[in-house]
Specification:
The chain is mainly alpha-helical. The protein has 3 domains: about 45 residues; about 90 residues, DNA polymerase, domain 1 (Orthogonal Bundle); about 190 residues, hpI Integrase, Chain A, CATH 1.10.443.10. Helix content is about 45%, strand content about 10%. The protein starts with a strand and ends in a 6-residue tail after the last helix.
């Protein structure tokens, strides 16, 4: 570790410490202050194994190197790329890493709404963490900003009577029926194949998720063990699957239950959203989002008194105490939720 302690023409002390070709410079008014700063730089170099140096790299350089080398899912990589391309790189992409301050990051957040700012913070923090690990930065600037807060939007959920109206209008739309009666995520439902329908049509098993990325479908296993689960179906959904299968007597186990124009590809997002809009209009109900059907399902079960751990298991939330891997386990673990779903989906009785 080489160092120099000199004085400038104006009488200041200049400290230069060099480790592995990277040099750090500091200035002081007195010799005692200079030696204290020298000792601090030497200790930093010893603890960190050297000095961080961005070598004039920009945020764009970091993003390109990080996303190329990161061991992450293709869908996650696509989400990161989109977030950075839309909200970050146009503002900070050309800025040198060592000049991106917490103040500049907070200014970026203020220009975004709360949900987008929270999303950007998570991606940026991960990117800068890699820069610290690669020794391009000494510290993560996102650790010194106020984390954006975004309260999740709570959808205006329907009443039980509105749910019954929706289910009646959706009788010919088994995809929507499945989302409303099981709480599956959109990607989980799109990825279902006929091999995933078991117990004589009384249950489905979630084995993978589907997402459209860069012009093609990408399939991944669930992110958590609890996401790979078996879900029991109420009678209305079992009957819908039977009608669907009757229209496809030659369906192969590998065919998608909710297929697009070809049986070897899932139904498209546009079709799903169009169906939901049509059913809401037919039933005279306010429009909701596809994902709101999942929220609706969970809310109805909780309102019916189903224990929270059981609802979490049915939805595939990460919960170490509940894992549904076998049909037998699923039957024992979902009796209350199945009974509640049967009550909700039965037509209202006429007095």
């Amino acid at each position: 570790m080489a160092y120099k302690l000199t004085r400038t023409k104006k009488g200041y002390y200049c400290i230069r410490v060099q480790v592995g070709g990277v040099r750090k410079t500091a200035y002081a008014k007195t010799e005692a202050e200079a030696r204290a700063k020298l000792k601090a730089l030497q200790q930093q170099a010893l603890l960190d194994g050297g000095f961080a140096d961005a070598h004039k790299r920009t945020l764009q350089d970091l993003v390109a190197a990080w996303l190329q080398s990161a061991r992450i899912r293709e869908t996650t990589r696509a989400n990161y790329e989109q977030t950075l391309r839309l909200y970050v790189l146009p503002v900070l992409g050309a800025v040198r890493l060592d000049r991106i301050t917490p103040q500049r990051i907070e200014a970026l957040y203020r220009a975004l709404d709360a949900p987008k700012a929270k999303l950007v913070h998570g991606v940026l923090r991960s990117a800068f963490a890699v820069a610290v690990r690669w020794r391009w930065l000494a510290a993560n600037p996102c650790d010194r900003v106020q984390r954006p807060q975004a309260k999740p939007k709570r959808p205006d959920l329907w009443t039980p009577d509105q749910v019954r109206a929706f289910l009646a209008a959706a009788r010919d739309y088994p995809f929507l029926l499945l989302l409303a009666t099981t709480g599956l995520r959109l990607g989980e439902a799109l990825a279902l194949r006929w091999r995933d329908v078991g117990l004589g049509g009384a249950a489905i098993t979630v084995r993978e998720t589907a997402k459209w990325v860069n012009g093609r479908w990408v399939f991944n296993p669930p992110k958590t063990a609890s996401g790979a689960r078996t879900v029991l179906l109420p009678q209305v959904m079992r009957e819908a699957l039977q009608r669907l299968l009757a229209r496809r007597p030659n369906a192969a186990p590998e065919d998608f239950v909710f297929a697009g124009r070809r049986t070897d590809a899932p139904m498209g997002y546009t079709t799903a959203h169009t169906q939901l809009a049509a059913v809401c209009k037919r039933a005279g109900l306010p429009r909701i989002r596809i994902h709101d059907l999942r929220h609706l399902h969970a809310s109805l079960l909780l309102a019916e008194g189903v224990p929270v751990p059981e609802v979490a298991a049915r939805l595939g939330h990460a919960n170490p105490s509940v894992t549904l891997r076998l049909y037998a386990h699923a039957v024992r673990g979902q009796q209350a939720s199945l009974a509640a779903m049967e009550r909700v989906t039965q037509p209202a009785r006429r007095e």
